[in-house]
Specification:
The chain has helices spanning 25-29, 56-60, 73-93; strands at residues 11-15, 35-37, 43-45, 66-70. The protein is an alpha+beta fold. The chain has one domain (11-93): 2-Layer Sandwich (Alpha-Beta Plaits). A hairpin with a 5-residue loop joins strand 2 and strand 3.
């Protein structure tokens, strides 16, 4: 039997370096080792494929300097639909 595996949707991790103080809490709490520290002590995404989208780094960051969001095709489609509906409303009302 051949197993067909679905390709996992990779999350998007944004690190706002202007807000980050380089405490390393996000790196310490990451259960899969996705994040690492650079030479200056700031976090960076080392291996996005390992991310399980648990959100621990985002929850534990005291500076709100990191966000994790899952990229899904359905989310993109719903955003497109809402944009289309909004443009239709503004066209008919304005």
């Amino acid at each position: 039997m051949t197993e067909i595996k679905k390709k996992k949707e990779e999350p998007k991790i944004d690190i706002f370096k202007a807000w980050c103080k380089g405490c390393g809490i996000c790196v310490a709490f990451c259960p899969t080792g996705v994040l690492a520290k650079d030479e200056a002590g700031y976090p960076y995404v080392k291996d996005i494929e390992k991310c399980i989208n648990c959100g621990w780094c985002e929850i534990r960051c005291p500076d709100f300097a990191i966000t994790v969001e899952k990229k899904t095709k359905e989310k993109k489609k719903s955003e497109e639909r809402s944009e289309e509906a909004e443009s239709e409303r503004s066209f008919t009302t304005g």
